[in-house]
Description:
Blueprint: E1 2-7, E2 9-10, E3 13-14, E4 26-34, E5 42-47, E6 58-67, E7 70-79, E8 88-97, H1 100-107
Antiparallel strand pairs: 1-4, 1-8, 2-3, 4-5, 5-6, 6-7, 7-8
Amino acid sequence: MHTIVYRIRHNGHRIAGTDPTLRVGIRGDLLLAPSLTEGRRLQARLLGPDGQDLIQRLDYAEVCQIRGEAMHITGTELVSRVSRGKPSKFRQSWLCVWDEAVALELLGRVRVDAVPGFSPEDDDYPG
């Protein structure tokens, strides 16, 4: 099914709604299919006209929510930084829409709450 995919995370961390990188959608054909290597697990892929992956596929994919004209898919992205060795695993979320206007409204709601840093007041060690 032809759709626009917006990646909600970068290296496992959620991107804020005001971040311009969040507002870049990639158009392609969304494919949700059983994984070839993981048995009953799903794999989500966004394919171009030539059948090649446009973005890194999602392993262990789950459709979390379908609401109106939008679908939220979560999963694990395997990112290989070197030619050898194990790839890094990162959580990833996709917002899949058919209309860009719907996506921009929803992306404006994405928030990243600041996590307070460590301070001496947080230390309960008496010594």
